[in-house]
């Protein structure tokens, strides 16, 4: 077809960098190839500084604070041109981490000429995976703290804001798709909020692990060079200083179990969102939820009246993609042949795609929530048309009063029947109820038969301000 097209959102192969680029661009500084290279440079510099602080490491002088600050500027000021330089070095070495090592060595000399004789302490006793595992761990940490958790919280807050004023709005429940004991709109939204908060809290508290222990995890080269150093202790200090948890038992690779935990946590969060997406879609179909019109927006290319729940559908599709990638990564990354194989390397580069589809999905759900208006009249009409749901209350009061086979009595009188108020009241006359129970049931209406739904909703959503 001729020459390659210049890259743009229109020519991008992935919709994450194309159609949805405005929704996912916040991830670019954290999970892109540029970001990975920058995190690698950071680890190399910080390891060099760690070694310089060890009295037992002869041959590398201690560095005062100004010199340390100048070296840290190498990764703090790392930009796209620097990343291009690294990629140019990689083209020569055919090794991505070796290219980073050479870049760092050149940069160290550039900012501190006096360190030229000590350059071989850059990447000292390191296998590439010492650098990579920590780079990815920092990536996971920052993506979680700066993007994923805030996006989760925004979605949860949107649901809470939607549900709070609806805590006591009665709504017909549907179990197996059939009319069931009433709930409230707010209580159903509170259920989703509680589930999402639990999964977000699990993700927030998950450990992010790292290792710095050499070619097969035994500090072989470290001990050969400096046997007097307590390398496990120094490595632990180094990893934890990066804000990570230390994994002391590894092969050449950090085994990625924590990544599986993170990804499974995201999958569970996404499944709750998906559950809500489908319920919201259904409530829109029932007319319980109305969608606010957006001027200029088209619902159908042939049916002018259509206002489609496209945001929830968009979310559903992207959750499927996100969870497919996350599920594969969780299964694949925890398995490595013997002390190391390279199949994790190409798989890990897709983390950004998984996170991107998560963001697009959550954004879709949030947009859908922002368009929802509750049709109170439509909801109330359904509740008030289903007096048969009170049969549960009737048979329960009969049980409490010692009646014989109350469930069976109500089953005979109500199963498969549509009851209105008159039929319900007539039904009560056929039953052996105490005067108190009869009076209570005569006062009861489907709208009032919501139990503690409003109270339970407010316990999660809070009271309206």
Describe the structure in your own words:
This protein is mainly alpha-helical and 465 residues long. Helix content is 60%, strand content 5%. It has helices spanning 21-24, 28-31, 33-52, 65-76, 80-93, 96-111, 128-163, 185-205, 220-225, 231-241, 257-286, 310-333, 343-348, 351-371, 376-384, 391-400, 406-414, 421-429, 435-443, 453-461, and strands spanning 170-175, 178-184, 209-210, 245-246, 289-291, 372-374. Strands 1-2 form a two-stranded antiparallel ribbon. Strands 3-4 form a two-stranded parallel sheet. A two-stranded antiparallel sheet has the order 5-6. A hairpin with a 2-residue loop joins β1 (170-175) and β2. α5 crosses α6, α11 packs antiparallel against α12 and α12 runs antiparallel to α14. Mean pLDDT is 93; it is low at 300-304.
Share of helical residues:
55-70%
Radius of gyration: 31 Å
* Run of helices and strands: HHHHHHHEEHEHHEHEHHHEHHHHHH
Largest sheet: 2 strands, antiparallel
Report the principal-axis shape.
elongated
Structural class: mainly alpha
Beta-strand segment tally: 6
Strand order across the largest sheet: 1-2
Number of helices: 20
Average pLDDT score? 93
Low-confidence spans: 300-304
Strand content: under 5%
Distance between the termini: 61 Å
Q: Could you list some keywords that capture this structure?
A:
two-stranded antiparallel ribbon, two-stranded parallel ribbon, mainly alpha, 6 strands, single chain
Brief sketch in words of this structure:
By secondary structure, the chain is mainly alpha-helical.
List the helices and strands and how they pair.
Blueprint: H1 21-24, H2 28-31, H3 33-52, H4 65-76, H5 80-93, H6 96-111, H7 128-163, E1 170-175, E2 178-184, H8 185-205, E3 209-210, H9 220-225, H10 231-241, E4 245-246, H11 257-286, E5 289-291, H12 310-333, H13 343-348, H14 351-371, E6 372-374, H15 376-384, H16 391-400, H17 406-414, H18 421-429, H19 435-443, H20 453-461
Parallel strand pairs: 3-4
Antiparallel strand pairs: 1-2, 5-6
């Amino acid at each position: 077809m001729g020459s390659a097209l210049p890259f743009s959102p229109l020519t991008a192969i992935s919709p994450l960098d194309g159609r949805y680029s405005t929704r996912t661009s916040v991830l670019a500084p954290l999970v892109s190839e540029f970001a990975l290279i920058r995190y690698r440079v950071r680890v190399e510099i910080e390891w060099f500084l760690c070694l310089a602080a060890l009295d037992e490491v002869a041959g590398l002088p201690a560095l005062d604070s100004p010199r340390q600050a100048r070296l840290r500027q190498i990764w703090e000021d790392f930009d796209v041109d620097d990343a291009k330089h690294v990629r140019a070095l990689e083209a020569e070495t055919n090794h991505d981490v070796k290219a980073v090592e050479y870049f760092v060595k050149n940069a160290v000399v550039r900012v501190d000429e006096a360190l030229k004789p000590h350059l071989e302490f850059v990447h000292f006793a390191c296998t590439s995976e010492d650098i990579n595992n920590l780079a990815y761990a920092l990536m996971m940490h920052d993506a979680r703290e700066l993007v994923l958790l805030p996006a989760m919280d925004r979605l949860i807050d949107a649901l809470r804001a939607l549900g709070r004023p609806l805590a006591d709005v009665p709504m017909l429940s549907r179990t197996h798709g059939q009319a069931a004991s009433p709930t409230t709109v707010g209580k159903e939204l509170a259920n989703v909020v509680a589930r999402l908060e639990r999964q977000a809290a699990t993700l927030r508290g998950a450990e992010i692990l790292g290792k710095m222990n050499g070619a097969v995890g035994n500090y072989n080269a470290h001990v050969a060079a400096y046997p007097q150093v307590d390398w496990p202790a120094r490595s632990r200090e180094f990893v934890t200083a990066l804000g990570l948890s230390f994994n002391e038992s590894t092969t050449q690779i950090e085994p990625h179990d924590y990544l599986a935990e993170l990804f499974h946590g995201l999958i569970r969060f996404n499944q709750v969102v998906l559950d809500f997406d489908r319920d919201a879609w259904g409530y829109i179909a029932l007319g319980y939820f109305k969608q606010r019109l957006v001027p200029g927006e088209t619902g159908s290319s042939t049916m002018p009246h259509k206002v489609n729940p496209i945001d929830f559908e968009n979310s559903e599709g992207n959750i499927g993609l996100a969870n497919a990638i996350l599920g594969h990564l969780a299964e694949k990354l925890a398995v490595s042949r013997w002390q190391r194989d390279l199949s994790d390397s190409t798989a890990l580069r897709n983390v950004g795609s998984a996170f991107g589809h998560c963001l697009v999905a959550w954004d879709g759900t949030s947009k859908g929530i922002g368009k929802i208006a509750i049709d109170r009249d439509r909801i109330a009409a359904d509740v008030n048309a289903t007096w048969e749901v009170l049969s549960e209350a009737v048979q329960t009061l009969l049980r409490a009063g010692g009646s014989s086979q109350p469930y069976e009595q109500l089953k005979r009188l109500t199963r498969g029947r549509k009851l209105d108020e008159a039929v319900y009241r007539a039904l009560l006359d056929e039953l052996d109820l105490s005067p108190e129970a009869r009076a209570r049931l005569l006062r009861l209406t489907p709208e009032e038969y919501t139990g503690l739904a409003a109270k339970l909703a407010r316990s999660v959503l809070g009271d309206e301000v």
